[in-house]
Each structure stands twice: as C-alpha cells, then as structure tokens.
Amino acid sequence: MSERDPYQILGVSRTATQDEIKRAYRRLAKEHHPDRNPDDKGAEQRFKEVQAAYEVLGDPQKRAQYDRFGAGGPAPNVREWNMGGSPFEDVRVDFGSMGDLTSIFEQFFSRGRGGSGRGPRARRSAPARKGADIEHVVEISFEEAAQGTRREVLLRTADGATDRIEVRIPAGVTDGQRIRVRGQGQEGAGGRGDLMIRCLVRPHAYFRREGLDVLLDLPLTFAEATLGARVEIPTPDGPTVLSVPAGTSSGAKLRLRGRGMKNERSGQRGDMYAVVRVQVPREVSDEARALIDQLDGALKQQPRAFLSWAL
Questions:
Q1: What is the three-class DSSP state of 138?
Q2: Which fold has domain 6-111?
Q3: What does DSSP assign to residue 262?
C-alpha cells in the first residue's frame, strides 16, 4: 500500500483533537470494514491502514513521539497483524521517523504471533484502549429520586444517526450522583466506553434531605403544641396522620420511622422528621391579649430561670 503518515490515513490535521481523531477513526473503520464491503478487495487493505494509524494517533504518548520526530525516517513492515480475526499479511505503513520505533511496533509484531515477537526486546502488546466515556445530565424531581424513574436519552453518533437509550434511575439517587451505563460511550479500538448519567434533583417545595432522612418543617399553633394534636402531613410515600404530644416545643423533631428515602441498592431506608415550628400570631385583639395575660399568669412559667446565675 502507499506510504502515508497516520494523519493522512485518517484525514485529519496535525492539530486535530483526540475527539476529532476518534470520530475520524470510527467513521473510516465503519466505511472500510470488510464485512460491509464484501465485493471490494481494497476495503480490507484500507481498513488495515485505518487501524494501524489509530494505534499511533489514538494513544497520546505514541502520537507525541511521532509528532516529535516527524516523517522521513524508517518505514517499518507490519506483518501478520491480527486484530481478533484472521491475520493481516504484508501490511507496510510509513509512519516516519519516531526515534526508537521498536517499543511501538513490537505490539504489531506480537499480535501476529500470539504474543511472541522477534528478538530479545519483543514483549506482550498492551490491551487496546476503550473509547471515551460520555456524560449526560438529566433533571429529575424529588419524588422521582425517592421512588425511582426512567429516562430516554438521545445520543448523536459520529455518522449522524441517533441512538435512543432508556436509562433506569434507581430509588434513592442523590443530587449529582452518576449512574454508569456500560458500553454506550464512544467507540475505540478496545470497544465502547460507558455512558455516565449525572442526576440533578430539583429542590422540593417543603421536603429537604439529609442522607436518607427527610425533613419537613411542621407549623403548629400555640394551642396544638401546648395541648397536643393529630395533624395530617405529607410524606414521600403519601399523606399520613402524625400525633403531636402535648407540650411540644418549637424546634422539636417528631420522628416517623422508615418514612424517609430508600436506597434501592443497599435496601436501607431512612426516617422522616417533622420539625415543629410554633406559629406566634403577630396581631391579637384586645380580648385575645387579655386572655393571653390571664393564661400567662396561670401557667407561671419561668423559661429563663437557668440564666439567673449569670446576673
């Protein structure tokens, strides 16, 4: 085949990014794959060139070594290079002068011989690298994070097609948590990378979360906190009735065991806490004021008695 450098083979400039090189490799590998061109004898040879070029440009270290020494050096013969199928025979690629080429092309020689190369410096080839991971952000509600949900993700492929991938988001996912979907990332010589789903959980109007526990600020009247009451409150599982003990102070946390978030993977379940907020009226009538004064005198409370030592 013609002696060309890997940039010419992949049709990219020397300033191309690694992503551009990967896209070019993916497009050309599909285009010239022998299985897609059964009647084209030249397709296999072009496919070999593309694979050989990507072995150098797809690896930043090998690419840097090639860029450093440039073209015009020795032209190594790559024979019987096996990429997991039948051996490729008589493949000659000119990648220019790259200093000590042995360390790079030993991998090619060893592939054709089941891991044994020529000469004392031959060694086992490094495994081919997988493609890069892709991150995709999805936004879900607090309720969806509590119960689990599904999302359809649309990904654009290098050849312009659209992949539709349904992703299952487990119950208990936290804000910013990533979910790995294996084998749905970018393609590479060693297979496809993974798709990373990063979940953004929208804040709730009245629930907030601490680990697996869920907190709810619960407004109570002075009478309800003093005398006790039964009030209906929301939970992640739906409404329930909460018993408020008599004499509950503002700031007290009333616990509902097992009503928090569920971690689907571990099976753990948090609790829910109703945080009491006693509502004090800002305006009272003269009649109400008189009754409050009368009540205060009857209760004879001394809430600051413990501060008397500092006076």
A1: strand
A2: Helix Hairpins (1.10.287)
A3: B
Count of all residues that appear for the chain in the document = 311
Q: How many other β-carbons are positioned within 10 Å of the β-carbon of residue 87?
A: 13
The architecture (CATH level 2) of 207-299 comes to Sandwich (2.60)
Q: Is the pLDDT of residue 272 over 80?
A: yes
Answer yes or no: same fold for 134-201 and 207-299: yes
33-59 pLDDT, tens digit per residue, is: 877 888 887 888 888 888 888 888 888
Degrees to nearest 5, angle at CA 133 with 105 and 154: 130
75: pLDDT strictly greater than 50:
no
Sign of the Cα pseudo-torsion (291, 295, 296, 298, in order):
positive
- List Cα–Cα distances, 124 to 55, 108, 114, 118, in angstroms: 15, 10, 9, 11
Q: Average pLDDT, whole number, for the chain?
A: 80
Q: So where are the chain's domains? A: 6-111, 134-201, 207-299
What would the 3-class secondary structure string for 81-102 be? ECCCCCCECCEECCCCCCCCCH
Q: Are the beta carbons of 98 and 66 closer than 8 angstroms?
A: yes
Q: At residue 114, does pLDDT exceed 80?
A: no
Express as a percent the part of the chain with pLDDT over 90. 35
